[in-house]
Structures are given as C-alpha cells and as structure tokens.
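Support request, please re-run this one:
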Amino acid sequence: MCGSGFILLCLLVITKGERVIDNELTEDEEGIVEEDLSDYILDGDVLYKTLWKPKDCAGPIDDGDDVTLATEYYGQKEDGKEVEMEHALTTKLGKGQTIGSKGDGLFGMCLGEHRRLVIPQHILRNKYKQILPGILDSVKTYLEVQVNMINKMSWHRFESGLNMAMLEPIENEFCSRTVVAGDTLAVEYEGTLENGKVFDSSANRGRPFGPFVHGKRQIIEGYTETLEGRCLGERWRMTVPPHLAYGDHGVGDDIPGGATLTFDVRLVQLNDAVWSEEVRNKKVLDWEEIYKPEVCEEIAGYDDELYIHYDATREDDSKFGSLVDNNPPYGPFSMSDKGTFVPALDYALPGMCLGERRMVVVPPRLGWMGGHHDSIMVEMMLVKINGKEAEKFAPEGPPKIEL
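Re-run finished. Output below.
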C-alpha cells in the first residue's frame, strides 16, 4: 500500500497546542505500516477505520460544525530529526474549508470517537501540510484519530478511566456558582448497562435523585468526579468503570458485578438554587455605574495604559482587593495586551471614565485564575489612564502585582 502513494494518518483530539515527543525514530518506528485495508471504508479519496466509538453518539460531525481535533503524527523538527509530534487543531468543517465533513474521513464522527485514516499523498500535500506543522511528506508518516469538541460539546477523559461527554454546558456568563465539597445537590439521570438496557432513571422514579451532600460518599465515585466544578443546569453523559460504580459485586439483579455503566445526568439543584427556564436565561455577568465624574476627561481605550483600584466581596462576605489589602492600584495594563487577567473586569472596563466606579458581578468561570466557586461582587475604580490620575487616587508604592 505504501508504494501506491498513500500515507497512513491517525487523528487524536486530546490537547491544545503543539508538543514534540523528543524520541528519534528507529527504523521499526518510522511509520511504514503493513495493514489489511479490506475493513476500511472509503469516504471520497480517504479510507477510514473506526478504532473506538462511544456507545452513545454525541454529534455526529456535520457541515459547518466547529471542531477541535488533536493530531498525533510523525514529523520533522527544524534540525531535521524525525520525531513523534502532537498538535491541536480547531477548525470549521465543511464546504469551502480546508477539511470537509465529507470526503476527508471525518463524516459522521461522534464526540470522542477514534479513527484511523489512510490519505492519498496528494491530499496530504494539498491540505495537511498547511495545518499540521512539520508533518512528513513521505510514506514514513502516520497518525491516529479522536474528536475532542463539536461546537459547544466537549470530550473529557479522567485519569481514573472515566469518560465524560459534556452535552449541554452552561455559558460562563450564566453560571453563578460551581459545585464544591459540602454543597447540597440533586440530579436528573438515566442509567444504562453496556447493552443499552435502562436499569434506573429519575423519570421512572418520578423525581430527581437527592438531595445529597457532595463529597460525603453518599453517591458513587463516578458522580463525585464529574460533579466537581459543574454549574447548575449542565448536562453530561459519563461512562463509569466498575471501580467507580458498584465494583465486582454489582447491585441485586439489575446491575451485574464488574459492570461499566453509562449515566445521562443533569444537575438540577445546587444548594437553594433549582434549575428552571428562569435560571437558564438569567445572565450573571453584569456591571453598573455607581459613580461617574460630571466631566469625563479621559475614557479607557483598547490600547491605553490603565490602573485600577478594586474591592472584592465573596459569597461568605470575606473581602480582598487593592484597597482592602492596602496595596497600590493594579497596573499598568492594557486591554490590547493581557488585560487584568480577570475576564469579567475586562468586559466591564471599556468606556469607563477616569475616576469612574463600577460594580461588577464576576462569575466563577470569568474570574481569578486561581479559581473560585462563587460569584464575586467587585467595586472597580479607574484611577489612571496614560499617566493621568484621577483626582482622588494616585498610584504609588511597588510595581504591579497580579490580581
């Protein structure tokens, strides 16, 4: 097959960015693969074989979808050494795009699915050389395949061996709180065996499961792993290996010992909050003007050098910030560079006048890089623009510190 000008490709969607596995290839590892292609399927000019596919398909890929693919392939470094490489690729599929949903071996792929592709050399040169850095243009190159994102859906594999498809994520600006240990929760769910048989569901029981306390071993470990960090209303499908479910003994006649279980889950209660259409449509990220000078002498622009003071109050009424901690104003920074490192504050800054104060609601997924589970109320004051100071505040003391 190698002599016919085909190159074996395997696409693997796992990580973002590019990684070089710095192991020079031996002759046995150079990618020349003798393989029976009789069980491959032809899609346009590309042959493909499914290596693994989730029992329940999320997706599948279709024209116009935004997908994240991670590729693993043999490539060539700048010094000429041939090594194994990984590269994450986010692209739109379909007509007019570099890669189509049909004719390129990706048609009908599910979230998390693995495929092996066999691609003619002319397609490799015309398409993949443009998007896979360093890929070898010879029969020595091969790759393998998985899909990590389709539009807003995403695939996650935990170190424990649990697989999770995030089917309905909550947008960051609509998530007011994320799950932590000690929270009181309830979920809607449907559990199935590997043969597809439903062994239990909240619909059959006529109510959600709960309330239960997260992190107190009141539910199987598979739930504990996937619930951590979730937002109210999120829906996911998890495939739970036996050691995170009911082990070798099973449960009664419904769940045999050693069973791998699949659960379709939605978080419907998080402490006092209950999932509803009203909650679904309530945007958490918000800000309002609490003081504005009568004369707006300077307005924060995209490329301006800025300083701010801030005073943040958490869910438990604890406080932090440059004023509370007696620190100098945060700066200098610009919105055209890295901003404040707190996305919610960056959204609220444009158009602020020098000396203006705004109250900003900072949701957990748009907040501080160290992470927080609650929405934080932040009073933000713009105290300096391009060296010009507001009347009541002047930056002094040591240089900028991270928020």
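The CA atoms of residues 14 and 70 lie 5 Å apart. DSSP finds five helices and 23 strands in the chain.
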